[in-house]
Amino acid sequence: MKLTPEEMGALLERAREAQRIWAETPCRRRAAILRGAGARLAAGADALTETIHRDNGKLPLDALAAEILPALLAAAYYVKRGRAFLKPRKIRGGSPLMANKQSRLIRKPWGVVGIIAPWNYPFAIPFSEVLMALLAGNAVLLKTASLTPRVGAALEEIFSGLALPPGLFTLVEMPGKDAGPAFIGTPEKPGVDKLFFTGSSATGRELMVLAAPRLLPLVLELGGADAAIVRADANLDRAAAGVIWAGFSNAGQSCGGVQRVIVLRPVYEAFLEKLRRLTQSLRPGVDLGPMATAKQKSAVRAQVENCLAQGARVAAQSPGASLQDEGLAAPAMVLTGVRAGMPIMDEEVFGPVVAVIPAETDEEALALANASPYGLTGSVWSRNRRRARALAARINAGAVMVNDHLMSHGLAETPWGGFGASGLGRTHGEMGFMEMVKTQVIVDDILPGVRRDLFWQPYSDKVYAGIRAVASLASGGLAGRIAALPRAMGAVLRYWSSR
Questions:
Q1: DSSP 3-state assignment of 283?
Q2: For residue 403, what pLDDT is reported?
Q3: 143: which strand partners?
Q4: Catalytic member of 67, 129, 255, 348
């Protein structure tokens, strides 16, 4: 169904009317209402797990662990912390010379927030964003992926079942290609007030072009080709098991999963052997689920064939179906012999494929990790946590984990988002919550009896000299400050002067 401009305009107007009512509702009351979302989710967790499984093929355990559980944690976290996030905050003064000016930050909702959700994590990603947006006082228009309509209906059931003003939350059904233009609108017929999109980097760039005429703010959570660095002192059993999960859960269809595994030379062969054994032990349909669409499987097949044609080798493959078979089942694959210019190194491969690359030193490993246009996540595997944290801080990625990978998206308190081709802005945590509000500063003059500021008209040489003296007090050396003090004090008296 494609909404006409008139229908979209009616949805927006209804949402704006509801938002005006909702924004006047105290945050404590909003939180109490939205607490019901977590309760409804908890009560229907098993049914929702099955719904996700039916819609995109994700294994039930993957759906429960990576979608339902994080959504429950997010519901509890934001309902508890949202009021504190929205509380006005005083800004500490920057200089005694401006002590009469007291500043305070105010958080204001954007109005109508648009959310375009992906098919690979169709529940957890939009659930948290909808919850944050509503708690912050916004209305929400949600477009879920056409591939996962049952999940969209489940989200609608959860939020529409709460005591929200009519029109505050609306599930919009339309083809994905129409959603961007409809949500963004034009300067003459504006759409939403802020847009959150999760999807490919190519689509993210298209949305930026559409948003530019309106200067519409966007939060874009895009692709990744993420790196894991395995140091020589790593626990290789844990590292191999972690790479298996982060690389192959959800059939590798995770933007923050492992794609490039960079292993220090002294442990390269030992690590590769552990990874080979674990990959070959994966059970189709039990440990490894199918890909979501034939189109996605075909894209991954073309990328793998490109790598092999350029000299890459398959070091390990899980049993069962091959990429050439009909159907959606795809094997987990470990590639070696890769180099720059291959898709596995330069592109996002959105499927169960990882490459293992040797490096001689930490510095070489870091250079390889950062040799990518993407910067979503990364990881460092090491028993030396201090050294691992130092190395992690130098990886060009928005979320870097030590001795784990991918899971930080499930931490409600932790911001999520990347650098470069991986997107703009943040979701999750306080930083993500702040994306749901506009920040306003209120500056109050608290000096009693003031007639004018010292820099107001009428101007004169005396006024110039007084302000110059104040500037010397602010930044001069000790002798200069002492010399400037009498004239600066005279300038300050202008606050109470009638001329």
A1: coil
A2: 98
A3: 116
A4: 255
